[in-house]
Design goal:
Elements lengths: L2 H4 L1 H16 L5 H8 L3 H13 L3 E5 L2 E4 L1 H29 L2 E5 L8 E7 L2 E6 L5 E4 L8 E8 L8 E7 L10 H8 L4 E5 L1 H9 L10 H10 L4 E6 L3 H10 L3 E5 L1
Parallel strand pairs: 3-5, 8-10, 8-11, 9-10
Antiparallel strand pairs: 1-2, 3-7, 4-5, 4-6, 6-7
Helix pairs in contact: 2-3, 2-4, 2-5, 3-4, 8-9
Length: 255
């Protein structure tokens, strides 16, 4: 167990030292007491102990400064707390996290299943594989099943996003309708940014998947292994590509 989490006194000592570091050199014991949730008398006792231990030095009445040793102790304690928090979130909570998947066959609760992505959705198959989980519910084929206890990595090839620019209304009609139709053929996700893009897609015989958050939707699809097309006006293409770049998605831009 991390030292500052072993007992209340160790945790309070850590918090008092942090408050001194934040407020130094003029330190109000009353303010520290309010921040930490103890009495001013208790703060005075903690400060006296910190001075005796060489973690804080007194410079005058109500004036204190954290020593190099004190800074090192705070830094090490904070690092230990961070590691403990990472252990809780990654190892403890991660192992009990539950997600939903589509059952590819009849499954019983407590069954080990292989996890895979198909059409961007998580699927649970009977038996073990490279990426596994344990069902928390029973489900018939095609129904939703709860899965936890994830192990391994799902084999996934990220999708690619093609961004096609169209001119804004003030610049004239869209002339690359055939190119848009060809680029969108057999692509599962097509998004539009701007009214001009929606109309251009409809002229190409394609109804966009969405015309909201075009870049973000395409990026999410690509992260789940689906190819996508974003049709965007020259005014909005920057926002779409920013979303793709932030998500580290592979994309190209054509006009």
């Amino acid at each position: 167990m991390v030292d500052v989490l072993e007992n209340k006194r160790a945790a309070t000592r850590f918090r008092v030292l942090v408050e001194i570091a934040e407020r130094q050199p003029a330190v109000s014991q009353g303010e520290i007491a309010d921040a930490v949730g103890v009495t001013s008398q208790a703060v005075s006792e903690y400060i006296r102990e910190l001075v005796d231990d060489g973690l804080v030095e007194k410079e005058g009445r109500s004036r204190y400064r954290v020593t190099k040793e004190g800074v090192d102790w705070v830094f090490q304690s904070a690092t230990d707390v961070r590691r403990f928090a990472d252990h809780v979130t990654d190892d403890v909570l991660g192992s009990v996290q539950e997600d939903a998947a589509i059952a590819t066959a009849d499954l019983a609760e407590g069954e080990t299943v292989t996890l895979s992505l198909s059409d961007g959705l998580l699927h649970a198959d009977p038996g073990g594989g490279d990426a596994t989980g344990v069902t928390t519910t029973s489900a018939a084929e095609g129904e939703v099943v709860g899965v936890t206890g994830f192990e391994g990595v799902i084999d996934l090839d990220p999708g690619h996003v093609s961004v096609i620019q169209v001119p804004p209304v003030r610049s004239g009609p869209v002339e690359n309708i055939d190119d848009i139709a060809a680029a969108c053929a057999d692509v599962p996700i097509v998004t539009a940014a701007g009214v001009e893009s929606v109309v251009a897609l409809r002229d190409a015989g394609i109804e966009p998947t969405t015309h909201f958050a075009a870049g973000e939707v395409a990026a999410d699809a690509a992260s789940r292994g689906l190819d996508a097309v974003v049709v965007a006006t020259q005014d909005t293409v920057g926002r779409a590509t920013d979303a793709l770049r932030d998500a580290s998605v592979d994309y190209d831009v054509t006009q």
